[in-house]
Each structure stands twice: as structure tokens, then as C-alpha cells.
Amino acid sequence: MSSTVVMSAPALIRLSAVSKGFLSGGQVQPVLQTIDLQLHPGEVTVLLGPSGCGKSTLLSLIAGLEWPDSGTVELLGEPFSTLSDAQQTRIRRRSLGIIFQFFNLVPTLTVAENLHLPQQLNGLAFNARHIDRLLQSLGVLHTREHFPEQLSGGEQQRVAIARALIHQPAIVLADEPTGSLDEASAEVVNELLFDQARQQGSTLLLVTHNPALARRADRVLQLHQGRLVQQGRLVQQGRLAADDNGAT
Amino acid sequence: MNLILLAFVRHYLRHPWMLGTLLCGVVLGVTVVTAVELTNHSVRANLAQANAQLLGRSTHRILADKPIDEALLRQLRTDAGIEAEPVLQRYLRVGAADGPLFQLIAADSLRPSRAGQGRSEVVSDPASLITTPNSVLIGAISARRLGIERGASLSVQRGEGEVVLQVIGVLGADDDRRFSQLLIMDIGWAQRLFGQAGQLDALDLVLQPAQVDRVRALLPAGHYLVDSQAMRASGEGIADALLFNLSALSLLALLVGLLLVYNTLTFSLLQRQPLFGQLRCLGVTAGQLYRYIMLELLLLSVVGCLGGLWVGVLLADQLLVLVTRTVNDLYAVSPLQSLVLTPKSLLLGCLAGVGGVILAGLLPARRVVQGAAHPSRLRITQEWHARQRLRHALWWVPGLVLSAWLILVWPGSGLEAGFAALTLLLLAGLLVVPGLLRLFVSGAAGFLAGSKRRGRTGLLLMALRECSRGLSRTAIAVQALTLAMAATVGIALLIGSFRLTLTDWLQQRLSADIYLTVRSVVPDAPQALPTTLLQAAAAQPEVQAISTARRREAQMAGHRFMLLSRALPAAARQGYRFIGADAAAVWARFDQPGGILVSEPLARRLGLQRADVLRIDGFADPFQVAGIYYDYGYEQGRAIVPAVPPSDPEATGPRRAGLYLHDGASVVALIDWLNRQPGAENVRVVDAEGLLARSLAIFERTFLVTEVLRVLALLVAFVAMLSALLSVQMERQPEMALYRALGFSAWERTRLLLYQGVILGGVCGLAAIPMGLLLAWGLIDLIQLRAFGWTLFYRIDPLQLVQAPFLAMLTAFLATLYPAWRQWQGVPRRGSGRLSVSSASAAAAKKR
Hints:
The complex is a heterodimer. Chain A is an alpha/beta fold.
């Protein structure tokens, strides 16, 4: 496992008794219930769970795209869930990289322009060498001037990874980035995602259905019906060793 | 380059139809507003200019019941030391009988005075005007238009014949509009040209307040002094109600245009919601995103405005011809016909466009910015929210209706209040329309679903359900089409009712067989019908009776109106209908001393009722209202007193007369005889049928402008429907791919779209019927009554009502043709959906 994991360092992401529900048919349907979670710098974590268990919602709460009904979300030591939208956005811009399953790229910008966008938002000059190096490392340099629609699904996701990492964020959140890809492509994309995150020392939280990915993670979380039923390290296939900070 | 802006620009370049629709909505809205504003401003400016040229800068004017003797001018100037200027003005057509109308102003070249400033001051070379017979100066703009220079001959129509004038100079700079369509001639030559040697139309004076009574004392019998300022104000404001009506109609077209913009913008923004979500994830704040969207709207509206201004100016040029002719027809005033481009008018068009687009975009922009932070939200959630919004909108309906009612019953509420109330009622109606659509399609779908023939009507069932499902995208288009259709129905009913009322009124009022009128285009010119001609006509054996009318401006309670002195034989009296009174009783009171008839517009303006006692300025004795008669001729109001009322100090000779012939008498022969009588060259003799035909032709011309605006509103609605259906089709492309995969033929998929269009159109058309009736009621009972004081009698033509759904279905059908054709062609979509991304990627991979 990675040597960059510093468990003793203060948590980059801290969720305390977070609950969230959505209104459906006039009634609130709970999606997440009293979630407690800490993620540390450089830690690579995989979040497993069946469809509809609240994985994407958990990611959205961490990214500040949704607000918890109760509990608190802290990011980089800041009480993220209580910050204003503008403050949240500034943190997101600087310290977060997000990858979704679909529609990751701006369709009306070329690959290079898509990668430059986070740089521009952070007030950085166009760094062609950095962009090219990253694209090269992900094997998609040839797509540099292409528009997203001209890329295959695998290429699109590789570019999405590159864009999520281009500004070297402290945290990378990935929501089933290979969900729409075939097995071979998914394997390549996941490999790259893990490698790049580790190379950059980013904290990675990856949501997936695929238990096989858990082997590459520092930690594995399992969500079931809105509750974090297990969190720990994978000691052997299908078995988790409980964390010191305890499973919920 | 800012990448977010670049992404926005490329979005529109990739969706040119969307860009085109948006710009089309803005362009059409701005076009109509600019055109009407420019036209209205030009008509007002031209009326003011015509007034300035007619009245100079005088404070008072002397008019008389016959041409004024020049001796009075000399007397005022030399004996009383008054600044006075002779007035002799005529309108002439240059070239052919239908050539451009010019105002010929006679100037006192030898002795210009302050009273004539604006006229005689321009004569820089008086000697040549005096020495050259029939010499004129012409405005530079007109000279350039006609292609004539100094020394050229100018042929003009005068009465029945043609006269050649000598152009000896050009007035003003090349762009000086003051002299547009103006000819200036020395007064001596003008008097000879018009056969008025030693005679004048009027005298303009510059008087100090203390001099007014002294001048009155000097005036011979039959001469009277009027306040030029009041005449100016009256002349310039004469067409206010007409122009206000046009402005209101243009705002209706703008409203339809903005609905279109709102619809397209909403779709354009919703389509990019995933993009906005991405940007938010990348660290774009909500405020930044909002500002980018506003910048986009600003750029779009500016481009649209520029286009709209350009087309608006072109349209205004055409509308001005129609409106000027209408003003001329309705008010017997001939304003000049030059388009006046002012920054204010253009700015107003820009403000309407930019402000309208920003306003139309505020709500959808706020919605997508808020929604952008929630990329996980699905389309079904959007639809649910859209349905919720439509449902909540219904709560506004009672409030809107109540507000409209309160505005209407508010004491003293006027024309603007009428428009405000009508707008609120239409808004209330529009809010109900999507609900009606849902109700209709749910009912129809339920019926079909339970039908035994379900298998054969599967496509129709799917189309019905899609109409309901896609309301978030089509609701605004449905409202725009309904509004445009309602406008079509409402205006058609208004015109039909107006035509019926006017025809009925004219047929009753034009009860004489032959009419004689003074041939004059100058209002208040002191011509009267030759007494000898009237006496000779009365002596003819065919003539049973003669009615006469003379008119003058009068004032009562600060309101100027037209006072008619009429000799009305029994036959003429049959043409009058009174509001809420028995005709016999009205006439009995009229024939008694102090009896007066008041027209409906005058009664409404002054709040008069039968038996009220009136005091008219300048009359010693009061009058009592004998009756209030329906009248559609003069919106400022008229009153009728018996011919030669004993207390009228300013009685003038009759200007009009109607001849009632015995049965079997030849109208043609008598007209021929009248035209051959001495003095008949200044009299227009027409038969009643000709007058009726001319009046109805004027009526048709009056409503031509309204028709143009109605067609424009319809055009905007068509684009709105096209845009909405295109939006739906573009979004349904993945769904269509599924149908294709399931085995639906191209024709079946096309039918699905066509059914949907026709259903939407049909429901819009049906909803437009009650809304059209509401609009017609508003236009007839709220607007026309308040603007003109005219009671119109309803004429509801069932054919016009039935036309609405068919027209709406046709519009919707035509708007569906392109999406249907695209479906037939199977044009692949470049876009953002899941299927499309993968299919495009697959296509790209295949290419590689």
C-alpha cells in the first residue's frame, strides 16, 4: 500500500452524523443516515455498495453539491457544510477534482481547452507542457485538439481523469468513472486513476460497484441502505479488517 | 480567451436553429416595437410640424365664415399696431393626381413678422418670389427626392386642373426636415393662383394678453379670434388615442416575442444544465455562472436588437404611409409623411429588446444555476418541478382576475387602466392554458387507453401522453400560440363588430341622396358653401329638403370639441340613434330654445347625461342636453345645436349640405346640374352611395395597420411553436432511436411528431376561442370605449371562432414539418445525452 497514507495526520474529509433524505411523493425518503467518516491525506479509498444505497449522494455531500439535512461535513479542516456557496466553490475549485460516470467534459471545448479550464479558474496561465505530460501519461495525447464527441468512452474518461488532476487537487472524488465502459477499458482507466492519484499524493474516494477494485485501495467502505456498514482495510478477498476508528 | 465564454459561443454555433430562434424572437419583438414607436413619433412630429407651418409662432389666429378681406390686415397693422401675418395655405399634389402631397404656404415676402416665424423667415430672396409669376421655393429634401433643381418647372394638381410652378430656390440644408414637402410662394401669386385676390384664409397675430380684448372689439361680424396654442395642442394630440392603440398592439406582439425568447432560452439553458453542473464542480461560483449567463443574454439581445432596429426602420417606413393615411382619413389632417429617426425611439426599441430578454432569462437562469449544483437530479425531477410550477401558477389566477376587476372599477380609471386590466385578464387566461392542455390530453389518453381500438390508436396515445409529459418544454410555446391565436380571434371580432356598427351607422346617417362639401384640405379654413348654390339647389323641383351643417371649434370645461350648427329636416333626423332615450322626446327638446345634442364620445369624456345643463365658452346662454347620440366620426366629441342659434356670437356659413330628393328623381342628373353652377368648383358634390363606399374604404384602410401587427404576432407565435417542437424533437432523438430499434418505421415516427404538433395546436386553438372572446370584449368595451368613447355592437362570426383551432393546428403542423423531416432523414444528433455520446463515440471509433 502507499506510503503516502498518513493516518496520524488530521483528516482531510470528516463527516459527523450526516443524514440526508429526498422528498418523494410528499414524504422524505432517507438516503443516508448518521454517517461518520474520516479520510486522511493521500489515502485511496473505495466506496462499495449496491445501486441506490446513497453512494453518489455521499460523494455529492462531500463535494458540497448537496447539503446534509443534519450533521456536519468538514473539508480541509473547514466546516464545509456551513460555508457559503461562494466559499465552498473556492475550496472546490482549488482542492477538489471530480469525475462522474457521464458527461465529464465540456462538449464545446477541445481536450486541451477542457484541461486548461481548471487552470484558468485557478488563475493559472496556460501550461501546455503540463497538459501534454498528463495527457501523455494517460495515453491520450493524440486527442489533444479533439472535441469530446470525437473520443471513445474510454478516452473521454481518461481525459476526465486528466482534468480532475490537472490542478493537483488535494482530494479527488470519482463516481463510478468506469461504469459505462467495457471491462478492458475500465481496467485501464482505473489503473490510471489510481496511479495518478498516488503519484500526485491526492486523497482519492472512488465510488464503484466493482469489489475487485477494493484490492488496490488503502481503505474500503461499504454502504448499505444509507448506512456505512463496514469500513476497514481489505485483508483478503471479501473480508475487511475493521479500522481503528471503528465501523459504524 | 475565456474558456467558459468560448464554450457558450460554441454551444450556439453547434445549435444554429436555437440561435436563430432566439434571435428571431428578439428581432421580431424589437422590430414591432421600434416600427410602431418610430411611426407614432414620426406622425406626432409631422403633425407638430404641419401645425407649426400652419400656425407659425403666433399666439392667436383670426378666422371667419368667409375669406378675410386684406383690409383687416392693414387695419390691424397700421391702426392698432398689432403684429399680424396673412395666412393662405393649401395642399397640392405634385405631378399626377396620386402624387405626393405638398403644403403650399403663402408668405408675405415684403413684410415678414414674428407672427409668421417658421414660414416667412425662410424667404431670403423676396424680390425674385415677387417678380417671378407662380414661383416657389421648395425644401431641399423634397427637391432631391423629386430630382429637381433651381429653375425647374413643377407641375401641381389644383382642383380639377394642373398648374406649372417655377422653382426659383431650395430651402434649408440637405437634411433639414423642417422644409420637407413644403412649397413657399409669395402671397400675391398664391392669391391669384387660388382665385382669392385680396382675400386671406386667416390672420396670425402675436398678442399681449392686454391686446386680446381690443382685437376682439375690432373684428367685423362673422370673424372670431382663437388661441393658437390651444389649436396647436389640439392638432398635435388629435391622433393620440389611435397611436396609443397601435403602441398597445405592438406591446402584444412584443409579449408574444418574449414568450418565444423565454421558451427558447429555457430550453437552451436546460439543455446545458449538465455543463453548468460540471462548471460548478470545477469551481465556478453560482454568481459567476449567473453573470456568464446574463452576459450571454446581453450579447444575444444586443445582436437581436441591432437586427430588430434595422428591420423596424424598414417596417416603420411602410407603416408610416398607412398611419398617415389613417390620420388623414379620420381627422381630415394631412401630416407630412417623413420618417423621423430619433435616438429616443431607437433606444426604446433597444430597451424593450434587451430588457425583455434579460427579464425573460432571469427565471430560467436562476433555475439552472440553482439546479446546476445538483447534477444528480434527473429529468423526471425537472418535469415534476415544472408541473408543480404550472400548478402553483393557477393560484395566481383569482388574484389576477380580482386585480383586473379592481382596476376597472377604480373611480376615474382611464385607457391605460383598461389596457392594464385586459393584460391581467389575458395573463390569467394564459396561466390556465397548460392546465387545460393536461386535462384534455389526460382525458383523451384515458379514453383511448380504455378503447377497444387501442391497438390502432397506439401512436395517438403515445403522442397524447408525450404532450403531457413534455409540458416543461412546451408550456410557454403553447401559451405563446394561444395568445397569438386569441389576438387573431379578438382583433377579427373587433374589426367585424366595428364594421357592422359603422356600416349600420353610416347607412342611417347618410340618409340624404346628395352631399355638398367645401373642397378644402386646410382645417378651419373659412370657406363656406356658396349661398347662391344652396338657394339654387333648394329651388330645384327634385329637391324635397336640405340639411345643412357648419362647424366650429368650441370649448367647454377646458375640453375642445366640435360644435355643429345643423338645420335638420325630418328625413335627416331619422339617421340619429340615441342612448337610452325616445327619439321623439329628444327631438322635441332639441327644437326648444337651448336644446343641444351631444355625441357619445363627448358625453363620456365630460361625464354628461341627458337633461344636464351645459355652458359653452363664448355663449351667453346655457344649453340643456336633449339627447346623447351614437357617433363614430370624431373622438374628441361633437355637439349639435339648431342652425343659427340665437346666442352664437361666432356663427359661420354652412360647410356641408345634404339634399333629400323626391322619389324617382335622378341623382346623377342633379349632380351634373350642380357641378355646372357658378361657385361649384370649390364644392365637392357626391352621392350618398359614393360617400358610403369612400367611408368604408377609409375604415378598411384604418384597420390595415392593425392587420399588419396581427400578422406579425402570428408570425412570432409560429416561430415559438417551431422552436418548441424543435426542442422536443432534438431531445427525443435518443427515444426515437429506441423506437427505431423496436421496429417503428420512419413514417410511424414522423406521425408521432405530427400528431403531437396537431394536438398541441388544436388545444391552443380551442383555448384561444374563449380568450379571443375575452380579448374582443376588452378591446370593444374597455379599450375602444375609453379611447374613443364609441359603443360598438358585437358581431360574433362563428366562422372566425372556428378558424382559430384550424389555424393553430395548421401552424403547429407546419412547425412540425421540419422536425418530422429530420426524423425521416434520421439526422444523427451531436449532443449530451447518454445514447448520443456513445453513438457518436461509436461513429468516431468507426471512422478511425
